Amino acid sequence: MTRRALISVSDKTGIEDFARALVARGWELLSTGGTLAALRAAGVPATAVSDVTGFPEILGGRVKTLHPAIHGGILARREAGHLAELAEHGLGTIDLVCVNLYPFRETVARGADFAEVTENIDIGGPAMLRAAAKNHADVLVLVDPADYPLALAGEVSPADRRRLAAKAFRHTGEYDAAIAAYLEDGAGETLPEHLTLSLSRVAEVRYGENPHQPGAVYRLGAERGPVLDARVVAGKPMSFNNYADADAAWALAAELARQEDHPAGTRAVCVAVKHANPCGVAVADTVRAAWERARDADTLSVFGGVVAVSRPVDLAAAQAMRGTFLEVLIAPDVTPEAVAWFAAKKPDLRVLVAAPDASPGTLDVRPLAGGFAVQGRDTRPWDDLCPEVVTRREPSEQEWLDLRFAWAVVKHARSNAVVLARDGVTVGLGAGAVSRIWAAERAVQNAGERARGAVLASEAFFPFDDVVRLAAGAGVTALLQPGGAKRDPEVIAAANELGLSMVFTGSRHFRH
């Protein structure tokens, strides 16, 4: 009996060569639409599905494979009863289904309108894949061009058939999840009762946070990330921890770069991160100067850190990094001269060019034992706040700039977090503390004499006046915090007593 393969693919990578090889091995090919045209144009003989079904494609191609002549041939078990039933109706078996689906996610990603997006919801393709995967003992199912060589190598083992069937169900499952997410987003439902996270692997890493943990990096749906889709232009492959730290560094650098009316909007931003926490942040006229200020903010913590900058890295900036060991550098661009210097002088440094026009997405997903905690990302900008000066003394113009700068930094630090800043550079950071006063003490200790004339930002309110008194004793002149504590009057009174200015934002930024 002649074996038959049904081929209908959106991704036509390698399809002509694969089809030609099947014909050379005695297979009969069935196909539809654009795939049929491509095969015939390449001189590969193929039969139209409509010739098998005896029914033309209708509704502009919406209905073409939904027919017993197709699904009967795929779903029939190769045993006497089913084969006799096919013969009774003049139907033949289909032994290989090679299908990948309409480019729904790609259509969404390029900003197509609703009508075009919905027209790219595949119906017949998923039905054929599910049928073939269900009957994988008798039908080989292919969704990925990478698996074509396996199909041509000879008899495919039961284990490989089962693996390919699982891959097909993943393919259709991810596809359905992407469609559901698109429709839910259009309906304004951010967190529906049932949420499907569609993840596709984009990178394998040697291990996770520690060598005994397996690890990989996945894309959520069709989203593009500045680090996830970055180009590695020099250095070693990225590790699990590199991805996490680079993502944190870039998020803060991008937020500071968006502050149009702040010096960061027209100057270079440099963010150094260690273990997902900022350890040195600065703005300056050039990338080199911004790097040097951020490095000098905490020369100990920056060692082995990850750095993000908001402007292209030139040779002068690259050479300024000579004496500091870094794991990753990410920038919007890196000049060829800088790339060559890094390759020669810092071969272990991963140098990344951030993916343009990428966004961090809308969901923040945290793992729990047995599930996930899901929330919208903390994207509330400064311009959405209504800062209120609650003390007798108003901040000076420079203090306002530094308060806003410090607020962006503390928003990206792990709670409890306190940041001291002066003249567009962090001078002291305390993050991840179990007590707010401990976070403040760490920040003040880190700053030393640089605390004099600095401002202080806290991502959450002050339950007592202890942070105010600690800050004043160190020489801090202005404070920023959300407000909203029971003892706000006492805290405000302490700031007035000590001659400090204090601003309430009315918005907290816990980050765990």
From the structure above, extract its key features.
single chain; 512 residues; alpha/beta; six-stranded mixed β-sheet; 20% strand
Structure report:
This protein is an alpha/beta fold. 37% of the residues lie in helices and 20% in strands. It is built from 18 helices and 21 strands. The chain has helices at 15-24, 33-41, 49-53, 68-75, 80-88, 104-109, 114-119, 124-134, 148-152, 158-186, 240-257, 287-297, 315-320, 336-345, 397-411, 436-447, 466-474, 488-497; strands at residues 4-9, 28-31, 47-48, 96-100, 140-142, 199-204, 216-220, 231-234, 268-274, 277-284, 305-309, 326-331, 350-353, 363-368, 371-376, 388-389, 418-421, 426-430, 455-458, 478-481, 501-504. The strands form five sheets. Strands 8-13-12-11-9-10 form a six-stranded mixed beta sheet. Strands 16-21-20-19-17-18 form a six-stranded mixed beta sheet, with helices on both faces. A five-stranded parallel beta sheet has the order 3-2-1-4-5, with helices on both faces. A hairpin with a 2-residue loop joins strand 9 and strand 10 (277-284). Helix 4 packs parallel to helix 8 (124-134) and helix 8 packs antiparallel against helix 10. The mean pLDDT is 88.
Strand content: 15-25%
Largest sheet features: 6 strands, mixed
Number of helices: 18
- Tell me the structural class: alpha/beta
Biggest sheet, spatial arrangement of strands: 8-13-12-11-9-10
Q: What is the average per-residue confidence, as pLDDT, rounded to a whole number?
A: 88
| Assembly context of the chains | single chain
Approximate shape: elongated
Stretches where pLDDT is under 50 for at least 5 consecutive residues are none
Percent of residues in helices: 25-40%
Radius of gyration: 30 Å
Counted beta strands: 21
Report how far apart the termini are.
Answer: 63 Å
